[in-house]
Write a structure and sequence with these properties.
heterodimer; A: 296 residues; mainly alpha; B: 320 residues; 14 helices; 2 strands; 2% strand
Chain lengths: 296, 320
């Protein structure tokens, strides 16, 4: 907890005559503590990341029937040449990217109405969205399975995408609304006085200034669609329609699990979210959905 | 997008004009804009409403029908009233799953909160390469659950896996993490905490970032100990965000399927079967649609209550 005390010793106004002296003492203690805290966080992070390091290491370790030594890309090559990995990757990319685009396209306008509308109907809809996002997806999955079976949407990437959009759109709408709340109405007022329509001010003024909000919503939709397992296991039947989570899991149906291949595919699967997070982390730093809910 | 800026945005929105609301745009112009706004709002909201009805509304009604009928996935049978609910509520499997779900949720919520809080406080201090650690520690939450459960499986599943071997070499026997019922329950919960703590860490970090550090300086001048500062300043300041994250995490834990299913499949001897896993198995493995949907329905009821409470709380505190 010394931590909290020394967080920003240089910030804040002088608190009294001995503020300067006290600050110096604080920062010296802070200097000593820094390296202890560094060691602590290094060890904790090391332990926490063991499962991930193991995955990466095994993915590049020669398999049981391999003649290679040291680290190798052989597993990666094998998994793409001997399994349907490329198809699964393509399926995952198609479903996820469509989900992201459609989710944002549906959530942004709805979020705008939630943010600007001041009527009973709008706040009622806001509550409805909120309740729906907390419901177990298993409740909807069974009826949707029957409905989609009749429409030929089972074992079909379009069917999967529709469900993903439906389940991301509740939280995505809240996230967009929370972001729009932070954009001052005075900007829109100016455009209305210039003769702009409400729709015009939404697209030209509000949406144009909402890139961080859109990105944060897009990342949320991306993670949900890319990582989903429950909807996939219910709706996908045939190998060539599998998305990556189903593909990775299908390796476990054999008697002896080929760990190096599984891990190679696992690395392929975790790369996109890790890259997205590493580059766009700042847009999601408020805790994503939590942040947007907390903001309202 | 901290809650403070959002709230000032909201406050401004309330003070200023919103289309369709009261405001400063004079007379005619306003009513024209207001009518136009209502029309535009309708069209902007329409796609969202259609999806909500299709993906959430319709299934909920259909689920209510299925829960009160016999029959299977292919054909809804005859109306049986509350019989499916009676079957479910009198079966030991349901209560066992409910009990496991309860423990899983309690450990998941508080375990991830404690770990997240500790790390958020540590990361708040000046640490060399602190930003890098912050990103690295988010990985368990970012990495797909299928990937991490695969890795955990490799680490603990068989007696020859890495961690059981480690225990053996330390002379502590060979724990069967996924084969022993109570150890499997613990393993699943530890796995859940591992997956969820980054979310808590992010929530708490965001809340801590808006705390003015001079408060602590003033408190330490007044002779407050670090523990007193923690309990009397830090905790109250993050209370709102903590409350929200607890309820959200409760919803995440109760609804969680893959964390449990991928690691243990609900076994051994149903020791780690949660309500979602039980509902899934009842419908898709035992083909008992009615009872399966009834279980999902009971969960739904509980979660509606929890989320309405949360919604009220958020509304109340954002008006303050």
């Amino acid at each position: 907890m010394s931590a909290v005390l020394h967080a920003h010793p240089e910030s804040g106004p002088a608190l009294g005559v001995d503020a300067g002296k006290r600050r110096k003492v604080l920062s010296e203690a802070g200097q000593r503590g820094r390296w202890w805290r560094f060691a602590a966080i290094l060890i904790i992070t090391g332990i926490v990341l063991v499962p991930i390091m193991v995955t990466v290491l095994l993915a590049f370790t020669p398999g049981p029937n391999s003649t290679a030594t040291g680290l190798t890309f052989e597993n990666l090559g094998n998994v793409f040449s001997k399994t349907l990995a490329a198809t699964w990757l393509k399926n995952s990319l198609i479903t996820t990217l469509s989900t992201v685009v459609v989710s944002v396209a549906v959530a942004a306008p709805a979020g705008y109405v939630l943010s600007r509308g001041r009527s009973k109907a709008v706040s009622g809809y806001s509550l409805l969205l909120f309740v729906m996002q907390s419901l177990p997806i298993i409740t909807s999955v069974v009826p949707l399975f029957i409905l989609f079976a009749g429409m030929g949407l089972v074992d079909n990437l379009l069917g999967l995408t529709i469900i993903y959009v439906g389940s991301t759109m509740t939280v995505a709408t809240w996230m967009m609304a929370a972001y729009f709340d932070s954009i001052p109405i005075s900007l829109e007022e100016a455009s209305w006085i210039d003769g702009c329509s409400v729709f015009g001010s939404f697209t030209k003024v509000v949406l144009r200034n909402s890139l961080p909000g859109v990105l944060s919503t897009a990342i949320f939709a991306f993670l949900l669609a890319w990582n989903d397992y429950l909807v996939a296991i219910v709706f996908l039947r045939s190998n060539e329609i599998f998305t990556l989570p189903m593909g990775v899991q299908s390796f476990f149906q054999q008697n002896a699990t080929d760990w190096t291949s599984v891990m190679a595919l696992a690395v392929v699967m975790m790369l996109p979210p890790v890259i997205v997070f590493a580059t766009l982390n700042k847009y999601f730093s408020v805790g994503g959905i939590g942040g947007s809910l907390a903001g309202r | 997008m901290s809650s403070t800026t959002t709230q000032s945005g909201l406050a401004r929105a309330r003070r200023g004009i919103a289309p369709g609301g009261s405001g400063t745009v004079p007379g005619k112009r306003r009513s024209k804009l207001s009518a136009q706004a209502t029309r535009t709002f309708f069209w902007l909201l329409l796609p969202s409403v259609v999806l909500l009805v299709l993906i959430h509304g319709y299934p909920l009604i259909y689920a209510a029908i299925q829960a009160t009928h016999d029959g299977d996935l292919l054909q809804t049978g005859n109306f049986v009233g509350g019989q499916n609910f009676a079957t479910v509520l009198t079966s030991p499997a349901f209560w066992k799953a409910a009990q496991f779900t309860l423990w899983f949720t309690i450990v998941g919520v508080f375990g991830s909160w404690l770990v997240g809080l500790g790390l958020a406080l540590l990361l708040r201090t000046r640490i060399p390469a602190g930003g890098t650690f912050k990103v690295l520690l988010l990985l368990p939450w970012v990495v797909p659950i299928v990937v991490s459960s695969t890795a955990w499986n490799w680490l603990v599943a068989t007696p020859d896996s890495l961690i059981p071997s480690l225990f053996r070499n330390l002379g502590m026997g060979t724990p069967l993490f996924l084969a022993d019922p109570s150890l499997a329950s613990i393993t699943v919960m530890v796995f859940k905490v591992w997956v969820s703590f980054p979310f808590m860490m992010m929530m708490i970090s965001a809340a801590l970032a808006s705390v003015d550090t001079t408060v602590y300086e003033a408190a330490s001048m007044d002779g407050a100990s670090r523990w007193q500062q923690f309990t009397q300043i830090t905790l109250p300041l993050i209370a709102r965000s903590t409350y929200i994250s607890w309820i959200l995490m409760t919803i995440f834990c109760v609804n969680d399927f893959p964390t449990i299913y991928l690691l243990t499949g609900g076994g051994p001897v149903n020791a780690t079967t949660s309500l979602v896993v039980l509902a899934y198995r009842t419908v898709f493995q035992d083909f008992a649609t009615g009872p399966g949907v009834a279980i999902a329905f009971l969960m739904t009821m509980t979660l509606v209550v929890i989320s309405v409470i949360l919604y009220r709380q958020i509304r109340k505190s954002s008006v303050e």
